[in-house]
Specification:
Mean pLDDT: 91
Order of helices and strands: EEEHEEHEHHHHEHEHEEHH
Strand content: 25-35%
């Protein structure tokens, strides 16, 4: 399955959301196609992370709909959203640092009642974790922690994966590994929304890029157009 299949894996239609009394998303529209990597780019505070949290129900949508296939996620309590098939790796990874690698993976498997076959498939994606199963996750390197956070999320066997700045603070070799993993998931038909600050981290792996500004999706373009017109990035993000 590839992005060319054209079907929507997830759609946000006219979504509003607030932090307290402050409105962050305003009539927010987004379409994630089946088997594609869609990157959200924009300045700090534009609403990128809020969009992910609103999909997960961690920030309630006060208007609009978020559709996973035909299911309206806005009607589900937050703990039901992962069970519906959406996995979220927040910025900062949020592992259970006192638990071992194996125990963190077990927590992921429990969410949708997955077993040994899923565990093995996930560990095949991250061979380094096989060597660390008995290690406390708080003692892993930053890159290994990011891999564990992704592995735990993939234990859901999600249709949609949400990644918030997965390469932040990582060495170039680890960034390359994370990119390879995202590309490998696309081959398996997983649809991914990726929030990144750095354009160079996105271009090799994204199919399309959505520019987020003031809580709205201003424009979604194929990544080829971004390569051909780097000024678009300056317009929306203000960095090279």
């Amino acid at each position: 399955m590839t992005a060319a299949s054209g079907m929507a894996a997830l759609r946000m239609e006219g979504v509003d959301s607030f932090y307290g009394h402050v409105q962050v998303l305003r009539g927010f529209d987004l379409e994630l196609k089946s088997g594609e990597v869609l990157c959200l780019l924009g300045r700090n505070g534009a609403g990128k992370t809020t969009a992910l949290k609103t999909i997960m129900g961690l920030v309630p949508a006060t208007a609009g709909r978020i559709l996973l296939g035909d299911a309206d996620l806005t009607k589900l309590p937050p703990h039901e959203v992962p069970k519906a098939g959406v996995a979220y790796v927040p910025q900062g990874r949020r592992l259970f640092s006192e638990l071992t690698v194996a125990e963190n993976i077990e927590v992921g498997l429990m969410t949708r009642g997955k077993g040994a076959a899923t565990r093995e498939a996930v560990l095949d994606l991250f061979p380094v974790l096989r060597e660390r199963l008995k290690q406390r996750s708080g003692t892993l390197s930053g890159g290994e922690q990011q891999m564990l956070a992704m592995a735990r999320a993939l234990c859901l066997e999600p249709q949609v994966l949400l990644l918030d700045e997965p390469t932040e603070g990582l060495m170039p070799s680890m960034i390359a590994r994370i990119r390879e993993t995202v590309a490998g998931l696309r081959e398996r038909g997983v649809s991914t929304i990726l929030v990144e600050q750095r354009v160079d981290a996105v271009l090799p792996v994204a199919d399309r890029v959505a520019f987020i500004e003031n809580g709205r999706n201003r424009e979604t373009v194929p990544v080829e157009r971004l390569r051909a017109d780097p000024d678009m990035v300056h317009r929306y993000v203000g960095v090279g």
